[in-house]
């Protein structure tokens, strides 16, 4: 079982206490509908929450927000809080490679966090809905477009902030970076799902519970479409890893090389505060940077001695071959450029085009330093591995010639942190 830090524990405890205080206020301020109505919305919530889609970040996305918003509009904050919280507690979600996830196999701290977050986000959103309507119209109305927009914005903001604080404490990263990662693209989906929630609420108010079921279908269809998108993305990632294994199968000396280069490249890109899209492109390029070696003869790749000029010129073609293989794939065109230029040098003496200084794409320069470092610190047919300290020395000496000077200090800092971490683990 994963151990959580004291900071994370304190945060979850604060969330739990805050949710209880808010729940106490809502219970005393708002009323509940009849039990059969509450049960109706709760069943819909459990179904919606069970159809969760797990994102790469580890967070889950469901269409439960639509039911939550519909319950706020139709039945009020207290009903919405109970319906949403019960839905999250009783959900049984199928997650790839993990089977069915439910309350009995979920760590207690996760369950407490999820329920507390649900009470806080749904409760405040529900209170806000009625407060804004009262202030603007001097009476509680069933529906106001302005109020709905405000509620969707606040609901999404609160949800992403609370989740980002948790990720910040767990990953020990900057809050703003985690928040931007979580909020990116969420508002559009929130408005889409929220719109369906409003339609469901209006259908219920106008025609009763039977009409709700007519609009529950499109809600499930929206979830299916998003799940299909995520599955396609997962297949793309799996294909990348399969290609990486194919490349490494040609040369046993480079086994694990691409994954290590990807890890170094991503760390450096994050240290430079590059965008998520650029980081993703760099990671993909790192995994596939040697794909062009498929077109190089095995005898040359595995030759233990020094290469002839002819053989070396053939090796130098692999970035171009790799780029040509990938450039016509729509979502890999930027990756292809990174791969093409990852053997360029800052002083212009690299290949294939002899680009110099800032003419070299930054992503390619990042990949270059990560690639060279890993090559230096692993065994090759023509030489043994260098120690990490010797490799650092080589990088320092080649700063401004082979490597972009902007990158060398940042990369060395990352490696030194890695060395320190290994020493502490060995001592422990």
From TrEMBL:
Residues 232-427 form the HD-GYP domain. The chain crosses the membrane at residues 6-26, 38-59, 65-90, 111-131, 143-166, 186-205, 211-230. Residues 254-376 form the HD domain. This is Putative metal-dependent phosphohydrolase. It comes from Caldisalinibacter kiritimatiensis. GO terms for molecular function: hydrolase activity. It comes from the Bacteria. Pfam families: HD_5. Keywords: Hydrolase, Membrane, Transmembrane, Transmembrane helix.
